């Protein structure tokens, strides 16, 4: 096959490209220039898409012996990932930019361009596996190394995208083995630190970065009854489940810590309450997709597991489609067997059946397990 290897400049994508060559594919390497400041330099494990990363990818391609190009996707990245991130926070939601990048850049914009140029598949260094079932359908599964598993952030992929995707690292037992292989191949990125945090905020100061883009408007911090218990300098600084940095002027009657229960962008209020008020008995989202073949009848409740964070643990649950209240179309409704803590609108809920990723939804609303503790409201 003719394969386009997305090379970030890290060790995983370099080894994935090398394995694609070993498998006999005709491989071309490409680095995505996503930053609108391409001259910036990387700082340790923060940031990506810098000039240093591009050079690391170039050196890896040279060692592997494949052609290498840099494609400028910075404008598309700004519109589909960065601007989306800002607008979601402005609306009081908690977005996941890695999900949007995979959904709209790496496996949409990049894959579309690759297909138009005659490539059969895009290869990346994600830790996930593609399994072909008895009917020839492709399924997305967890990686062999659960500690490095990245199937969660790939949960947005559709059947058509899976048909043209390759993840050569999926069966690798550990990241240490990938680094050892990179060293044996003579790749200079063998010991390069993994990237972390949000790639387009390399200094890690998300609150400061957002303040420059959404503005800072002071407002009240209130309890579930609406009583003012503190003040904030910008609602964008808070997310559901947060405990630290609340700076409350009025202690809780029982003296226990309080947590953020809700962010209300219209009234510019941050609502706080006891930890048990974070418990969510149900979550739902109308922006859902299936990763491969969907359930035979998704309107009938089925058993599954749900994961709401990239490095979170899956929780037993049931799910089904039902008509969205007051809207056209359906929503994916997920009921965990045990209430979940700190679930925020804007987060992604990925549904698994065993190791298989069945699908995902962006959370639009949640239902409290203890509505009396959140002002008597069941949904938030």
TrEMBL record:
Interaction with tRNA: annotated span: 148-150
GO biological process: tRNA wobble position uridine thiolation
Catalytic site positions: 101, 199
Catalytic activity reported: S-sulfanyl-L-cysteinyl-[protein] + uridine(34) in tRNA + AH2 + ATP = 2-thiouridine(34) in tRNA + L-cysteinyl-[protein] + A + AMP + diphosphate + H(+)
Residues flagged as site, Interaction with tRNA: 126, 347
Localisation: Cytoplasm
Binding sites annotated in the UniProt record for ATP: 6-13, 32, 125
CDD domains, sorted: MnmA_TRMU-like
Coiled coil stretches, renumbered: none
GO molecular function, one term: tRNA-uridine 2-sulfurtransferase activity
Protein origin, superkingdom: Bacteria
Known role: Catalyzes the 2-thiolation of uridine at the wobble position (U34) of tRNA, leading to the formation of s(2)U34.
Protein's name in the database: tRNA-specific 2-thiouridylase MnmA
UniProt organism field: Cnuibacter physcomitrellae
Gene that this sequence comes from: mnmA
